[in-house]
Amino acid sequence: MKIALLGYGKMGRIIEKIAIDRKNEIVLKIDENNAHELTTENLKKADVAIEFSIPDTVLGHIDACFKANVPIVVGTTGWYGHLQRIKDDCVDGGHTLLYASNFSVGVNVFFHVNKILAKLMNNYPYYDVQVEEIHHTQKLDSPSGTAITIAEGIIDGLADKKEWVNELVDAGASAQEVVKPDQVLIESLRVENVPGTHTVIYDSEVDTIEFKHTAHNRNGFALGAVLAAEWVQGKKGFYSVKDMFNFSL
Ligand SMILES: NC(=O)c1ccc[n+]([C@@H]2O[C@H](COP(=O)([O-])OP(=O)(O)OC[C@H]3O[C@@H](n4cnc5c(N)ncnc54)[C@H](O)[C@@H]3O)[C@@H](O)[C@H]2O)c1
């Protein structure tokens, strides 16, 4: 498979290594220093593009891939307010896009079990729920896309929760946000060198249940993105990583 890397930062570099180990070839690398090389002609040299850049550039990268008719796998987070427009453009134009707030197998298992747990906890309304996410200090978006997916899974499962609210909290401090009964609080902490930790906390007067995922490094995200690039080959349409993992009990 010939791959274009759109965004060549921490994730782009790990993806390059894993993709080459899996006998793929990198034919284009785009970052802020050579953005002018992102042309239709250059993109057409690739079978697929893998996009890990920044929220300000991701939409332009998606549009460029649609224009060149090259399937795109999107890992960048912080653009989901535009999801419906992108989905419509993708389907109407006969293009191919797969996105994930988190490509790791472990986190996708976590997402699945989180939804089941939320449905179960519906029977025990004296527990209140919140989500905590911890990431490195260079992360641009808050809360993380992964935390949003977790909160949406909880809102899906718990009848009395309708929306999430985020609070960026200094390490060591506790959340000050006044949370309404129908809201799920996401506490976002930024700590040096943390690749990503997410905890769902159900708290009652008598005990606390914690369900936690800790990424040890970025390799799991990168491998999932390369697997997704392989998976979309020959497919048309708009996919999320759920379509690829397709968990069932
Ligand atoms: N979905 C997942 O599994 C997953 C996992 C990790 C990170 N992420 C997300 O992926 C994104 C990238 O993460 P990262 O850790 O590699 O960040 P990073 O800061 O290391 O890299 C971002 C890269 O964006 C590129 N960039 C900046 N401006 C650009 C421009 N104008 N044109 C082209 N490229 C430009 C640069 O190459 C830069 O290095 C973030 O949104 C992060 O939240 C997603």
From TrEMBL:
Residues 106-244 form the Dihydrodipicolinate reductase C-terminal domain. Signal peptide: none annotated. GO terms for cellular component: cytosol. Its EC number is 1.17.1.8. NAD(+) binds at residues 32, 75-77, 100-103. Coiled coil: none annotated. InterPro entries: DapB_C (IPR022663), DapB_N (IPR000846), DHDPR_bac (IPR023940), NAD(P)-bd_dom_sf (IPR036291). GO terms for molecular function: 4-hydroxy-tetrahydrodipicolinate reductase; NAD binding; NADP binding; oxidoreductase activity, acting on CH or CH2 groups, NAD or NADP as acceptor. It holds the Pfam family DapB_C. It catalyses: (S)-2,3,4,5-tetrahydrodipicolinate + NAD(+) + H2O = (2S,4S)-4-hydroxy-2,3,4,5-tetrahydrodipicolinate + NADH + H(+); (S)-2,3,4,5-tetrahydrodipicolinate + NADP(+) + H2O = (2S,4S)-4-hydroxy-2,3,4,5-tetrahydrodipicolinate + NADPH + H(+). (S)-2,3,4,5-tetrahydrodipicolinate binds at residues 136, 145-146. Its main location: cytoplasm. It is found in: Cytoplasm. It is an enzyme of class 1 (oxidoreductase). Keywords: Amino-acid biosynthesis, Cytoplasm, Diaminopimelate biosynthesis, Lysine biosynthesis, NAD, NADP, Oxidoreductase. Pathway: Amino-acid biosynthesis; L-lysine biosynthesis via DAP pathway; (S)-tetrahydrodipicolinate from L-aspartate: step 4/4. NCBIfam families: dapB. Belongs to the DapB family. This is 4-hydroxy-tetrahydrodipicolinate reductase. It comes from Mucilaginibacter yixingensis.
